[in-house]
C-alpha cells in the first residue's frame, strides 16, 4: 500500500539519494581520468583538461584516451543498466539480460559476417555492423515471441531470445572455427572492454545512447503497470502490446549501441537492476534513474580497478566485474531483503 | 434430487476419466515417438561417414550378433563411443534442465545459467591451464567443480530454507564470478593451453573415453529413475511452498533431493562433454509442448535432449564441410525447432 | 473436545513475534471466521494452525497430539489449507490441478486409484467446476479460479479445511457464492472450516463463529451476534460505527457512523 505520505517520504529520501549518486559518479569519472597504467600527476591531468600544454604526451593520453574512455564508460554503463532494468520489467523475469535477448550474439554474428563476407577491418567500421546485428537480433526475438495468440508473453520472449542467441552463436562459432582471420578480429571485439575505444567510436554511438536514455525515463510508469501483470495493466488502461514494443525498441537501441562500442559486457545489465530495486523498492520511476547512475559507477570502478591492479597492463572490465562485483551481489541477495519483482 | 446428484457425479467422473485418458494417451504417444526417433538417430549416426554402413550392419555389430572385423572396427571402435556419448549426455542434460526449470519456476533457470556449468568450466580450465592435465583428470575436475558450485550456491542461498528466487539470484552471481575467473585464466594462459581450454569450453561429444562413458551410463541408470520417482513430488512443489506443505510434502527435503539429482546429472554430462549450451535450456519446454502444458515429463525431456545432441552430432560431423565440435551446432539444430514450436503455439492458448 | 487447538502459541518470522502466547480452540463442525485489521496476525495464526509456521513457543494440537511431532503426511490427511496466493505452473489444466490435491493419499509407487478418482470428481461437483476440467487455469475468471483451488483442497479429503483470505480479488457476487459453498460443504460433508476474512458483514452472515484479532492477540470470540459490537469494531479496526441487523438473516451489519 503506498499511501500518499509513504510515497512522499520515499521521494524525500530517494531524491537526495539520486544527487549523492550523481556526485559519486562524478568522483569515479574523475578517478577514471586521473588513474591509469601511465602515471600522470594530478596537476598534469588538470593542465591537460584545461587545454594547456597541448603537445605533451600527458595531454595526449588524458584528452585523447582517458576522457573519451571515461565518457564512453558513463554512457555505456548507463545504457546497459537501463536496458537491463527495462528488459527485466517487461519480461517480469529477474534473469532477463540483454545477452539473453540476442543482443550480444546478433552483434557478434554480424561482426564476423562483415569480416568474412565484406572484408571489413577495424573497430571503427564494424561497430556499425555490430549495432545493426544487435538491433536485428532483438527485433527477431520480439517478432518470434509475438507470433501466436497471446503475443509476446514473458516466457515466450525468454525462449525466443534463447533460441535466437543459440542460432546466432552457432553461426558465429561455425564461421570463426573455419576462418582464423575472423577469429582474431572477433576475439579483439568480444573481449568486452573500454580499452582502445576512442573519440570516433564515442561520437558515433553517443547520439543513440543519449536518445535511448532519455526515452527510457518515460517507461517508468508503463513498467510499473506491467509489473502487476498483463491483465492488471490492461485494467489500468495501458496498451500492453504497445508498451512492450516501445520498451523493446529502447532496449534494442541502448544495448545495441553499447555492445557495438564496447563488445559484450555482462553483469552490469543483469545485476544493477537488482541493486536499484534493493535501494528503491518496486517503483520503476525511481529504479530507472537509479540504474542509470549506479551502472556507470559500477562499470567505471571496475575499469579503474582493472587498470590499477594489473598496471602496466590492464585487466578486462568483465573479469573485474565478475571477481569483485559478484561477491558483493551475493552478499546483498543473502542478507538484504530483495523484493521479488 | 439425489438422482440428479449421482448423475452429475457420474458425468463428472466420465469427463475426468476422459481428460486423464487423453493426457495419458498423448504422453504415451509422444514418449514412444521420441524413443523411436532417438533410436533411429542413434543408429543413423553410426551408418553415415566416409565408410557407409547399412542399419542392419550397425545393429548386428552393436548387439554383437555377428563379428565382421572391418565393420566392428568402425562401429564399435570409432562410432559407438561418440553415439553413446551423445545419447547419454543428451539424456542427462535434458532431464536435469527440466528439473531445474520446474523446481525454480523459471524457464531461464537452466543449469547453464545458474552457475553450475560455470563452476565445472572454471575447474576444468584451471586444470588445463595451471596443471596441464587432460582426459579423465579434466572430467573429474569438471565434475568436482560443478558439484562444489552447486553446494556453494545452496549454502549461500540457505536462510531458513532455500527460496527458488534467492537460489537463482545467487546462482547468477556465482556464475558471473566463475566466468570472470575463467576469463582471467584464459588471458594468462599460454597459447597452447588456452586453445585447448577453448576447445573444451565449446563442448563436444566426440572425445569421451570408455571410463567416462561408463561413469555417466552407470549414473544415468540410477539417477534417471530417481528423477522420475521424485518428479511426482515436484508436481506438488510446483504449487508453491505453502500449498506443497499443506499437502504433506516435506518441502526442503524434497527440494534438496531434486536439486542433488539434477546437479549430479548435469555435472556428469558437462564432465564428459564439456559445457554444451542450449540443450538443458530447451529440452524441457519442447517436451512440454509435445506432452501438453505443465506435464513436466522428465523422460520426454531427457529424450528430447538426446535427440538434440544426436542430430547436432550428425550435422557437426557429417553435413558440414569441416568437422566442428558438437557444441557449435546444438544451437543451430535446436533453435529452428524451438522457434517453430513458439510460432505454432497451440490455438487453445495452452502454450507457455 | 476439539480436534484442532493451540496452547500458548507464539509465532513470528523475524525477531519480533507476531502472535504472542495465544490459546485458541477451533470448534468442530463449525464455520469459523478469523477477522481483524491488516497485519494483526490473522494470516500468521492460520499458517501456524496449518503448521506452515513452526511455533516459537507453545504448540498446536491436532486430535490432542502436538502437531510438530506428527509426520507431514499424517497431518495432510486430516487438515487442508488453501494459501492466500497459491502458485500454478503455466498452462496447467483444471483436472491436473485438482488431481494434485490427492498427493497425501498416494505412496511412492501407488499413483492413482478409484478412490482418488472419486474424491476428485466429488470435489469438482461440489465446487461446480466439473465443466471446466479441460480448461487451462489461466483462462478462467477470478471466481472460477478460486473455486478450482478450493476443489483442489477438497480433493485432499480432509475433515478440517483452512482458507487464507479466499474471497480476496472476488466481486461481491463471487464472494457470496464462495461463502455459500463453504456453508454447503460444512452442512453436507460436516467439514470444519476456518477462513481468514476481510468483510465482517459477510463473515457474520455466513459463519457460525468469529475470532476477532488485534495486535497478535484474540480480543473477542463467539457467535457473530454476540461478538460484533460497535465497541469491538472501534477496538479492532479503529472505525466508529453503528450495528444494524441484516434484514434477511438478522445477523449484525456494520454501518460506518459518520
From TrEMBL, chain A:
Subcellular location(s) per record: Cell membrane
User: Which cellular component appears as one GO term in the record?
Assistant: plasma membrane
| UniProt xrefs under SUPFAM superfamilies | ABC transporter involved in vitamin B12 uptake, BtuC
Q: Where are the transmembrane segments?
A: 12-33, 70-87, 99-120, 126-145, 157-178, 198-224, 245-272, 284-305, 317-336
Predominant location category: membrane
Q: Which GO terms describe its molecular function?
A: transmembrane transporter activity
Keywords (alphabetical) are: Cell membrane, Membrane, Transmembrane, Transmembrane helix, Transport
Give the family, as the similarity comment puts it. Belongs to the binding-protein-dependent transport system permease family. FecCD subfamily.
Q: Which PANTHER family match?
A: FE(3+) DICITRATE TRANSPORT SYSTEM PERMEASE PROTEIN FECC-RELATED, FERRIC ENTEROBACTIN TRANSPORT SYSTEM PERMEASE PROTEIN
- Name of the protein described by the UniProt record: Iron ABC transporter permease
What organism, scientifically named, is this protein from? Catellatospora coxensis
Cite the source lineage. Bacteria, Bacillati, Actinomycetota, Actinomycetes, Micromonosporales
TrEMBL record, chain B:
Q: What is the lineage of its organism?
A: Bacteria, Bacillati, Actinomycetota, Actinomycetes, Micromonosporales
Instruction: Give the organism, scientific name.
Output: Catellatospora coxensis
GO MF terms held by the record: transmembrane transporter activity
What topology does the record note for this protein and the membrane?
A: Multi-pass membrane protein
Q: Membrane spanning segments where?
A: 27-48, 113-131, 138-158, 164-187, 257-283, 290-310, 322-343
The superkingdom listed in its UniProt entry is Bacteria
List the keywords (alphabetical).
Cell membrane, Membrane, Transmembrane, Transmembrane helix, Transport
Q: Where found in the cell?
A: Cell membrane
Q: Is Transmembrane given among the entry's keywords? A: yes
Q: What is this protein called?
A: Iron ABC transporter permease
One protein family per Pfam: FecCD
Cited InterPro entries: ABC_BtuC-like (IPR037294), ABC_transptr_permease_BtuC (IPR000522)
> Is Cell membrane there in the keyword field?
yes
A Gene Ontology term for the protein's cellular component:
plasma membrane
Q: Name one GO biological process term.
A: siderophore-iron import into cell
The record's family statement is: Belongs to the binding-protein-dependent transport system permease family. FecCD subfamily.
UniProtKB/TrEMBL annotation, chain C:
Query: Does the keyword section mention ATP-binding?
Result: yes
GO MF term (any one): ATP binding
Main location (coarse class): membrane
Give a GO cellular-component term: plasma membrane
Q: Do you know which SMART domains this protein is assigned to? A: AAA
Q: What is one process in the GO biological process aspect for this record?
A: iron ion transport
Keyword list (alphabetical) reads: ATP-binding, Cell membrane, Ion transport, Iron, Iron transport, Membrane, Nucleotide-binding, Transport
The source's superkingdom equals Bacteria
Q: Does the keyword field hold ATP-binding? A: yes
Q: Where is the ABC transporter domain?
A: 4-240
Per UniProt, subcellular location reads as: Cell membrane
- Give the record's membrane topology: Peripheral membrane protein
Kindly provide the name given to this protein in its UniProt entry.
ABC transporter
State the organism of origin. Catellatospora coxensis
Q: Which gene encodes it?
A: fepC
Amino acid at each position: 500500500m503506498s499511501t500518499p505520505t509513504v510515497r512522499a517520504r520515499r521521494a524525500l529520501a530517494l531524491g537526495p539519494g539520486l544527487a549523492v549518486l550523481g556526485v559519486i559518479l562524478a568522483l569515479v569519472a574523475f578517478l577514471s581520468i586521473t588513474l591509469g597504467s601511465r602515471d600522470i600527476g594530478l596537476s598534469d591531468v588538470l593542465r591537460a583538461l584545461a587545454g594547456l600544454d597541448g603537445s605533451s604526451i600527458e595531454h595526449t593520453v588524458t584528452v585523447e584516451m582517458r576522457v573519451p574512455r571515461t565518457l564512453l564508460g558513463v554512457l555505456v554503463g548507463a545504457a546497459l543498466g537501463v536496458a537491463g532494468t527495462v528488459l527485466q520489467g517487461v519480461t517480469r523475469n529477474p534473469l532477463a539480460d540483454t545477452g539473453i535477448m540476442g543482443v550480444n550474439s546478433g552483434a557478434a554474428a554480424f561482426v564476423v559476417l562483415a569480416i568474412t563476407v565484406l572484408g571489413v577491418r577495424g573497430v571503427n567500421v564494424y561497430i556499425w555492423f555490430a549495432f545493426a546485428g544487435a538491433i536485428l537480433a532483438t527485433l527477431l526475438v520480439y517478432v518470434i515471441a509475438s507470433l501466436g495468440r497471446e503475443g509476446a508473453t514473458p516466457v515466450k520472449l525468454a525462449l525466443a531470445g534463447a533460441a535466437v542467441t543459440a542460432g546466432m552463436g552457432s553461426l558465429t562459432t561455425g564461421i570463426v572455427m573455419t576462418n582464423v582471420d575472423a577469429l582474431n578480429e572477433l576475439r579483439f571485439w568480444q573481449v568486452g572492454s573500454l580499452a582502445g575505444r576512442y573519440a570516433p567510436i564515442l561520437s558515433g554511438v553517443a547520439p543513440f545512447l543519449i536518445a535511448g536514455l532519455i526515452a527510457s525515463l518515460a517507461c517508468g510508469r508503463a513498467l510499473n503497470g506491467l509489473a502487476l501483470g498483463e491483465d492488471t495493466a490492461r485494467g489500468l488502461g495501458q496498451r500492453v502490446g504497445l508498451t512492450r514494443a516501445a520498451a523493446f525498441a529502447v532496449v534494442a537501441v541502448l544495448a545495441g549501441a553499447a555492445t557495438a562500442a564496447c563488445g559484450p559486457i555482462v553483469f552490469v545489465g543483469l545485476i544493477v537492476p537488482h541493486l536499484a530495486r534493493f535501494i528503491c523498492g518496486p517503483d520503476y520511476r525511481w529504479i530507472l534513474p537509479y540504474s542509470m547512475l549506479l551502472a556507470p559507477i559500477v562499470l567505471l570502478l571496475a575499469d579503474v580497478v582493472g587498470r590499477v591492479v594489473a598496471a602496466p597492463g590492464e585487466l578486462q572490465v568483465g573479469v573485474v566485474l565478475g571477481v569483485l562485483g559478484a561477491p558483493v551481489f551475493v552478499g546483498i541477495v543473502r542478507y538484504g531483503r530483495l523484493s521479488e519483482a | 434430487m439425489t438422482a440428479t446428484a449421482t448423475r452429475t457425479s457420474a458425468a463428472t467422473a466420465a469427463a475426468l476419466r476422459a481428460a486423464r485418458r487423453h493426457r495419458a494417451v498423448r504422453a504415451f504417444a509422444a514418449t514412444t515417438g521420441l524413443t523411436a526417433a532417438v533410436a533411429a538417430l542413434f543408429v543413423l549416426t553410426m551408418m553415415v561417414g566416409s565408410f557407409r554402413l547399412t542399419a542392419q550392419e550397425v545393429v548386428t555389430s552393436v548387439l554383437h550378433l555377428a563379428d565382421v572385423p572391418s565393420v566392428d572396427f568402425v562401429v564399435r571402435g570409432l562410432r559407438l563411443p561418440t553415439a553413446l556419448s551423445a545419447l547419454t549426455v543428451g539424456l542427462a542434460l535434458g532431464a536435469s534442465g527440466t528439473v531445474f526449470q520446474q523446481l525454480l519456476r523459471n524457464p531461464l533457470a537452466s543449469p547453464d545459467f545458474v552457475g553450475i556449468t560455470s563452476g565445472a568450466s572454471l575447474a576444468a580450465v584451471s586444470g588445463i591451464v595451471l596443471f596441464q592435465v587432460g582426459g579423465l583428470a579434466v572430467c573429474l575436475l569438471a565434475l568436482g567443480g560443478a558439484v562444489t558450485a552447486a553446494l556453494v550456491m545452496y549454502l549461500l542461498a540457505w536462510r531458513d530454507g532455500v527460496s527458488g528466487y534467492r537460489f537463482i539470484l545467487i546462482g547468477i552471481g556465482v556464475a558471473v564470478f566463475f566466468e570472470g575467473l575463467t576469463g582471467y585464466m584464459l588471458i594468462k594462459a599460454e597459447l597452447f593451453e588456452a586453445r585447448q581450454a577453448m576447445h573444451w569450453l565449446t563442448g563436444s561429444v566426440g572425445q569421451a573415453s570408455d571410463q567416462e562413458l561408463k561413469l555417466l551410463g552407470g549414473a544415468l541408470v540410477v539417477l534417471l529413475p530417481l528423477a522420475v520417482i521424485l518428479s511426482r513430488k515436484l508436481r506438488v512443489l510446483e504449487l508453491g511452498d505453502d500449498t506443497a506443505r499443506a499437502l504433506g510434502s516435506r518441502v526442503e527435503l524434497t527440494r534438496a533431493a531434486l536439486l542433488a539429482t539434477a546437479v549430479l546429472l548435469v555435472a556428469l554430462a558437462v564432465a564428459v562433454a564439456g559445457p554444451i549450451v542450449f540443450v538443458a535450456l530447451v529440452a524441457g519446454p519442447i517436451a512440454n509442448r509435445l506432452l501438453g502444458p505443465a506435464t513436466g515429463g522428465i523422460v520426454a525431456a531427457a529424450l528430447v535432449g538426446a535427440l538434440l545432441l544426436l542430430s547436432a552430432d550428425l550435422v557437426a560431423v557429417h553435413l558440414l564441410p569441416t568437422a566442428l565440435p558438437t557444441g557449435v551446432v546444438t544451437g543451430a539444430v535446436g533453435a529452428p525447432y524451438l522457434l517453430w514450436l513458439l510460432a505454432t503455439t497451440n490455438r487453445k492458448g495452452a502454450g507457455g | 473436545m476439539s480436534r484442532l487447538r493451540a496452547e500458548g502459541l507464539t509465532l513470528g518470522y523475524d525477531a519480533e513475534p507476531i502472535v504472542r502466547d495465544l490459546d485458541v480452540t477451533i470448534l468442530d463442525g463449525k464455520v469459523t471466521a478469523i477477522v481483524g485489521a491488516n497485519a494483526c496476525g490473522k494470516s500468521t495464526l492460520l499458517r501456524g494452525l496449518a503448521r506452515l509456521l513452526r511455533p516459537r513457543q507453545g504448540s498446536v494440537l491436532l486430535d490432542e497430539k502436538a502437531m510438530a511431532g506428527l509426520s507431514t503426511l499424517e497431518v495432510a490427511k486430516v487438515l487442508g489449507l488453501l494459501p492466500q496466493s497459491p502458485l500454478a505452473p503455466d498452462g496447467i489444466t483444471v483436472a491436473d490441478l485438482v488431481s494434485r490435491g490427492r498427493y497425501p493419499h498416494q505412496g511412492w509407487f501407488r499413483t492413482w486409484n478409484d478412490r482418488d478418482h472419486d474424491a476428485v470428481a466429488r470435489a469438482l461437483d461440489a465446487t461446480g467446476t466439473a465443466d471446466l476440467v479441460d480448461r487451462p487455469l489461466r483462462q478462467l475468471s477470478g471466481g472460477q479460479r478460486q473455486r478450482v483451488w478450493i476443489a483442489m483442497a477438497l480433493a485432499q479429503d480432509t475433515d478440517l479445511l483452512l482458507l487464507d483470505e479466499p474471497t480476496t480479488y472476488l466481486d461481491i457476487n463471487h464472494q457470496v457464492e464462495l461463502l455459500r459453498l463453504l456453508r454447503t460443504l460444512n452442512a453436507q460433508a460436516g467439514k470444519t472450516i476456518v477462513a481468514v476474512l476481510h468483510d465482517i458483514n459477510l463473515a457474520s452472515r455466513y459463519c457460525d463463529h468469529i475470532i476477532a484479532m488485534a495486535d497478535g492477540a484474540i480480543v473477542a470470540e463467539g457467535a457473530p451476534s454476540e461478538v460484533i459490537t460497535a465497541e469491538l469494531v472501534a477496538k479492532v479496526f479503529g472505525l466508529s460505527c453503528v450495528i444494524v441487523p441484516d434484514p434477511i438473516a438478522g445477523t449484525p451489519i456494520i454501518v460506518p457512523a459518520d
